[in-house]
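Dear support,

Our group has been running a series of protein-ligand predictions, and this particular one with flavin-adenine dinucleotide is the one our PI (initials K.S.) wants archived with full inputs and outputs. We had some confusion internally about which version of the output was final, so please treat the block below as the authoritative record. The input we submitted was:
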Amino acid sequence: MTLDSPKQRIHAIVIGCSLAGLFTARVLSDHFERVTILERDPVGDHPESRRGQPQTRHLHGLLAQGFRIINDLFPDLEDALVKGGAIISDMGEAIRWYHFDGYKKQFTSGLHAVSVSRIFLEWNIRNYVARLPNVAIQSACAVRGLVTNNDRTQVLGVHAVTGNDGEKETTIGANIVVDAAGRGSSAGKWLESVGFDRPQEDEVKVGVGYATRLYRRRPNDLVGARLVMISPTPPRQKHMSFLFPVEHDRWIVSAGGWFGDHPPTEESAYLEFIRRLPVSDIYDVVSRAEPLSDVFTYKFSSSLRRRYEKLTRFPEGYLVLGDAIASFNPIYGQGMTSAAMQVQVLDSVLHQEPNLTGLWQKFFQRIAKVVDIPWQMAACEDFRYPEAVGKKPALTDLTNAYLAKVHRATHHDPVVYSQFLKVMNLMAPPSSLMHPKIVWRVLRGGSD
Ligand SMILES: Cc1cc2nc3c(=O)[nH]c(=O)nc-3n(C[C@H](O)[C@H](O)[C@H](O)COP(=O)(O)OP(=O)(O)OC[C@H]3O[C@@H](n4cnc5c(N)ncnc54)[C@H](O)[C@@H]3O)c2cc1C
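Confirmed final output from the archive:
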């Protein structure tokens, strides 16, 4: 094995070729001579859901902040998505959103929503990354552990097995290894095996279950909106469903519930679950539409955050990001955007730091700030349910009492809804909802 000098930026390894790994490789390609993505699954040349990322069959909404970053990272991607059938629309105009016992007021928000299947989005991004001259994607290559120097202070590469049956062991050297292996990342185990502590974990148990189905989309299926979201009024209701248009004239419908109240998969029971939602907008479409897939399910037990920023010892040359750092209750649609924001931090620290030594500390400190906001937003909403178990963020009950009024104000006040959409899309800080102009509008009630 030949190993590059750790002081140089010759070779970077990314573990995982899902979205966080692809974003990472794109950024590292600006900073390293060569980048290799190692992916455990065989990766084909068409849009498909792989074993290592079963969530990709389910509806994925991309927040406006994520879409903005992705457009910066991958110029021309938007054109490719639209050519392939993605639908881009103004969020405020396009979404018919029932939430807290009322429809939010549709208005022109200036925030763009891209409606596309998760596998088609990833396939386009993967094609882009695969065309970068200094990036290689090695699929059917499972990383099994870290290679370190003798005193175990520096990661020098990875041990891996390659081939569809994992038949060949190999060692690959690198100046930096970035773990984007998702929630199931073995980073904690690997760190322990070379003498470091695992990160502390924060968990909020939500017991969410999803069931998703694709349907044929006809032009007049939905009038006056392009997407529908039906969200519950917690703790009274526990069910939700979203209907988004995706490429090839299809609808994707995900229905879900908290704390074990999950949608069934049997056809008529699935429809009945959707029929029992407080409004009929999604039922009206899917009860008449032709199903194009089975009903796929996914169980998500808890939001999970790994506190790498609290570690005081860590090997040089190793970073972790994406769902491997934080996987959020998917109902809030934050994972892809959080990964994109974390990768922006990676880009920034690599620009600022001339050498890689000590990079991990600055990286994890800054990542923690990026994760804090979506984590607290998701956790606060989940703690509206008394069944939620975990560390409750400070002032959750007070925040939720005020946000309930914000949600109700969005039914009639486009100024409040506009600010709420910006916060939800991670385009503005949550504190902006406490601006006196917004507080006054929220508290006075009434229409605009
Ligand atoms: C049901 C559900 C719905 C969701 N909906 C949304 C949504 O609406 N909006 C949103 O933004 N986010 C959503 N998310 C989250 C989103 O899917 C993830 O945040 C996003 O895919 C980024 O994840 P990732 O790349 O970090 O990890 P993953 O997508 O989990 O990918 C990890 C990759 O690493 C590979 N891998 C793992 N171990 C190894 C190894 N040892 N060696 C090599 N390769 C390895 C895996 O095969 C996989 O390809 C949802 C999640 C779920 C579960």
